[in-house]
Task: structure prediction
Amino acid sequence: MTHGHDSLSQPPAPEPGVLRLRIDPTFGDTGQLKLRVSPELAQHTLEQLRADGAEASIGAEFGLATDLVILAVMMKDNGAWMTLRTVIEAVATRNKDKRIRFELGDSTVEMDGYSANTVERLMDDAHRQFDERAQKWEEMQRRLRPSQPDDDAS
Result:
């Protein structure tokens, strides 16, 4: 089941008190990733993203009731992925004494503290999904564009 503008299925709700960090690669040519975080994580995560050079802002969706804050992050190149990974590691490290739930689609990993392997696996999966969606978008756009006459044919 999807909610609002999400095109990824949603996992079941976590237990109360669990911090959430959800990665939603968007579909289309926006080059944007939605990082949804518990309100307790939002300000620090946004500040960390900006301090590390990411183009990030608080996002909004209409018609979507959620308990998560949306951070829109521009993903222009692999450097942006490295920045995002670094920021997520910093947030997880800062909250290592709390239970954190990482979400990607209907996949969830809950952990007490910080696990470099978990963050790395999550980020690799998110990057792969982001690239797959971008490729599908490009293929769809090519099919929709009218064929251009070959300039060399004249």
